[in-house]
Design a protein that fits this description.
CATH class: Mainly Alpha
Number of domains: 1
Structural class: mainly alpha
Number of helices: 21
CATH architecture: Up-down Bundle
Shape: globular
Oligomer: single chain
Length: about 425
């Protein structure tokens, strides 16, 4: 049986003979803007939960709602974003999303200075920024194939993942320092500025974007669900989608609980927590560099399966930190239990994610690519808020550490979707 995945592997060798994307000035502009934006986003990703815990003294249920709202936008707007991205030019969507997020985030430090910051505002900021992030991410993943040669899509995704990794290394440590020096709400101002810079870099890209492919009018529901239908008709994408849905449901448990667990149960200071999370950036950076080599050496199927297992198994160390890091024991053991999944789990996640996005961009036709990307986001980040809500309530009933143990186990079991699919035989 022919497999649409094979061109992805077959074209890796010709890609090596092309000039590096670092010589493509338009790609460098996109990469630079995304690097700065990712750095700012890391500050907000940790800064909003820290503002909720340290400034507003939020509990587990409130943290669950806060984490859920950030991802609920995918559930509501994900498929709609896919339709827009396939109908319109993608670069203006990227610029508008960046400018909108800058305007939304600047309200947090403004409210803090005025002394009126509340959980209600944090909920609104998380929801509105989440909506714009959905449009940005779908357009971003669909824009890359129009900016670089098809044979360089894997390299482009790898380099853009490197951008995210750099931010993962510098962002958490910088966040911890900023939170201690100027408080969490004021630190979020840096993210607003980063989005303005990102919008400027995308605006400066000179390569014309091809117009959207004209299509026959379709029923709105049929057009909206086209990406999801494509995913479930294509066996490899179907397995990846079901694995993502399962993984992100259980990873959603970590969203509202990780910062609370580290600060209130393990008693880590924000700066030390920033260092711990920064190890994830180191792992992600390594993963972004080695991802193309790993898939060429071991094949696509094995790469996905092993990366999924590593991510789940290392996460089992996180609840273990609550045993070895209780008062009267050595704190460094607890920190080590948090650092290992950050380092190796994030490395595995990055290898997995780069190859998954590249597979999508290679298999999906141009006219439906935006909706396929949106459908995969729905099966990943759209499931996250459901997990966040469930995790928040389970933590209130079972305790934080038991809930985190359940989450890690669920991530391990999500690999069964890959093992039961044709993907495991793709070399």
């Amino acid at each position: 049986m022919s497999d649409p995945v094979l061109p992805l592997v077959a074209e890796a060798a010709p890609a090596a003979r092309l000039r590096s994307l670092w010589t493509n000035l338009d790609f460098v502009k996109l990469w630079t803007g995304q690097t700065i934006s990712e750095l700012g986003s890391r500050i907000t990703r940790e800064g909003i939960p820290l503002a909720a815990v340290l400034v507003l003294h939020a509990g587990t249920v409130q943290m669950g709602f806060l984490s859920a709202l950030g991802g609920a936008a995918v559930l509501v707007f994900g498929l709609v974003a896919g339709v827009w991205v396939d109908r319109l030019r993608r670069r203006p969507i990227l610029i508008a999303a960046d400018l909108g997020r800058a305007a939304i985030l600047v309200s947090v430090p403004a409210a803090a200075v005025a002394g009126v910051l509340s959980m209600g505002q944090l909920y609104a900021v998380a929801a509105l920024a989440g909506i714009l992030t959905v449009f940005f991410d779908v357009a971003y993943q669909s824009y890359l194939p129009a900016l670089v040669a098809r044979e360089q899509i894997l390299e482009g995704n790898s380099k853009l993942a490197l951008s995210s990794s750099i931010a993962e290394i510098a962002g958490p440590g910088l966040t911890g320092i900023l939170v201690q020096l100027i408080t969490a709400p004021i630190a979020i101002l840096f993210d607003a500025i980063s989005f303005l810079f990102s919008a400027l870099m995308v605006l400066l890209i000179r390569k014309p974007e091809p117009p959207a492919v004209p299509r026959e009018p379709e029923h709105l529901v049929t057009e909206t669900l086209a990406g999801v239908r494509f995913i479930f008709r294509e066996p490899t994408l179907r397995a990846l989608g079901l694995r993502s849905a399962t993984t992100f449901f259980f990873m959603g448990f970590f969203g509202p609980l990780y910062v609370l667990y580290a600060i209130q149960i393990l008693h880590l200071r924000p700066a030390l927590l920033g260092v711990v999370i920064a190890m994830g950036g180191v792992g992600a950076m390594v993963g972004s560099v080695v991802a193309p080599r790993i898939v060429q050496r071991f094949g696509l199927g094995r790469t996905f399966i092993v990366a999924s297992l590593v991510q789940g198994l290392t996460n089992l160390l996180i609840p273990l930190a609550g045993l070895v890091g209780t008062p009267g024991t050595l704190l460094f053991l607890a920190v080590a239990c948090l650092m290992v999944p950050q380092l190796f789990g994030d490395m595995a996640f990055m290898v997995y994610n780069i190859n998954e996005v590249t597979l999508r961009q290679t298999v999906a036709p141009e006219h439906v690519l935006g909706r396929v990307n949106a459908g995969m986001q729905l099966l990943a980040r759209g499931i996250w808020p459901i997990g966040s809500l469930v995790g928040g309530f389970l933590a209130a009933a079972l305790g934080v550490r038991a809930t985190l143990a359940l989450a890690a186990t669920g991530v391990v079991l999500s690999t069964l979707w890959l093992l039961a699919s044709p993907l495991r035989r793709v070399r």
